[in-house]
Specification:
By secondary structure, the chain is α/β, with parallel strands linked by helices. It has two domains: 114 residues, Rossmann fold (3-Layer(aba) Sandwich); 296 residues, no CATH class. The strands form three sheets. A six-stranded mixed beta sheet has the order 7-8-9-10-12-11, with helices on both faces. A hairpin with a 6-residue loop joins strand 7 and strand 8. The longest helix has 22 residues.
């Protein structure tokens, strides 16, 4: 790796898998660092976002499997047939470490073969808090998933204001050098490209881009909620006499998922215990909370002052709390992926009990995390965790409240308290 490259958590997983597998696709939204990460390992590079190189490759697709290995095919979705070229090359020789593909969208025109068993897909997200504050972390998700319930230690100087700053700064590596108007312009440009260009590149023509922007803004307002599709649609069209039809707005969500810009947290529907009456609605999240904040037009001062912004979508607590949960969720998903664990959420049908994040091991046992925009934790904050412990017993490996406070510790009831900046893989 080059001296200038800042290693990412996904590097560990990528190195481990690439040492034994012939082809890996690294996928996620634009700007998360996929190309830079893949370039650290590639010898031959085909950049399909370069019009000239794309034209040459279209004329002779087989060249994508030629050259010194490892071969990187960057933005493979611009020529979906490239997936099949790699698949066939792997069928002819399964030596490890042959191909890397990066993609910023799932193409509408899918390859002729899924690539199952030949090409493994890894998800890459914007930078987690552990990647932003490498010297802070003291509590590993791996240790929580072990079920040992050991001591929790560590101290951070980060405050609510610091986490608010991180929400605004974003986890896109190329934007972290910016601030103020330059950062706002960069985020605006990112959103503009998604609305005005990326949809068309996926063969989805948007007749009314302002309607799409309103829907996307309403979705941002629904961050960290389980608002229904109808609630988001109504919020996007508040004050209008005619609301857009479902056939108009359903493709918005579908394409945004193809662009990896929507990153919803699925509901936990366990099969190995007796929990019943659980809701099935996902928790809404954009790829980066900075995008939600920018769509809603809020800065650090507005968030800290508790200013309401954007279309009205019911939520518990202030907007800052929802965006803080989004930031923690982004981070925990990165850590969980390294630990081969899933990230889900729990909510009963009536909303009597809700737990923000359920991290599930392969054997079905879980760690439960509550996210609180607070520096202190009281008995009211842990009531849902105690409820879950009574319901699933030993299937609950650990229970933790993630806060913006200074210290990591265990309460006398065994519940952990961990500042967000101290949590890592």
């Amino acid at each position: 790796m080059t001296d200038q490259y800042m290693p990412r958590i996904v590097d560990r997983e990528l190195d481990e898998l690439f040492a034994g597998l012939p082809a890996i696709a690294l996928e996620g939204p634009r700007g998360v660092g996929k190309t830079e990460t893949a370039m650290q390992r590639a010898t031959t590079v085909y950049r399909l976002d370069d019009p000239d190189q794309l034209t040459l490759v279209k004329a002779r697709r087989q060249q994508l499997s030629e050259g010194a290995e490892p071969i990187l095919i960057d933005e493979w979705q611009r020529l979906p047939e490239s997936w099949d070229v790699v698949r066939r090359a792997v069928d002819e020789g399964r030596k490890a470490g042959r191909f890397l593909l990066t993609g910023s969208a799932t193409p509408t025109r899918l390859p002729t073969h899924s690539g199952a068993g030949r090409i493994i897909t890894l998800r890459m997200r914007p930078m987690s808090l552990a990647e932003r504050f490498r010297d802070e972390t003291t509590v590993s998700l791996a240790s929580l998933l072990s079920g040992n319930k050991g001591d929790l230690r560590g101290e951070t100087k980060l405050t609510v204001a610091d986490y608010t700053s991180e929400i605004i700064r974003s986890g896109f590596p190329g934007m972290r050098q910016y601030s103020g108007r330059i950062l706002r312009s960069a985020l605006d440009g990112y959103i503009d490209r998604a609305v005005e260009r990326d949809f068309e590149e996926l063969d989805q023509r948007v007749r009314d881009t302002e309607s799409l922007r309103r829907w996307l803004t309403a979705y941002a307002a629904a961050t960290s909620t389980t608002a229904t599709f109808e609630t988001i649609r109504d919020a996007a069209s508040a004050g209008e006499s005619h609301k857009p039809s479902k056939s108009t707005v359903y493709p918005y969500r579908s394409v945004l998922e193809q662009l990896w810009l929507i990153d919803e947290v699925p509901s936990w529907l366990p099969t190995r215990n007796r929990l019943r009456r659980l809701g099935a609605s996902p928790v809404h999240q954009l790829a980066d909370p900075a995008l939600a904040a920018r769509l809603l037009g809020v800065d650090e001062a507005a968030l800290l002052q508790g200013v309401s912004a954007g279309p009205f979508v019911p939520r518990d607590g202030p907007l800052l709390g929802s965006l803080f949960e989004s930031l923690v969720t982004l981070s925990v998903r990165t850590y969980a992926q390294q630990n081969e664990a899933k990230v889900l959420h729990l909510r009963t049908h009536g909303g009597e009990h809700e737990i923000d994040l359920i991290i599930e091991r392969g054997d079905g046992k879980v760690v439960a995390l509550e996210v609180k925009l607070s520096s202190t934790v009281d008995d009211q904050d842990v009531r849902h965790l105690h409820w879950l412990a009574k319901r699933i017993g030993s299937d609950l490996l650990d229970a933790v409240v993630v806060t913006c406070g200074p210290y990591a510790y265990r309460r006398t009831d065994g519940i952990g308290v961990v500042p967000a900046a101290l949590l890592t893989i």
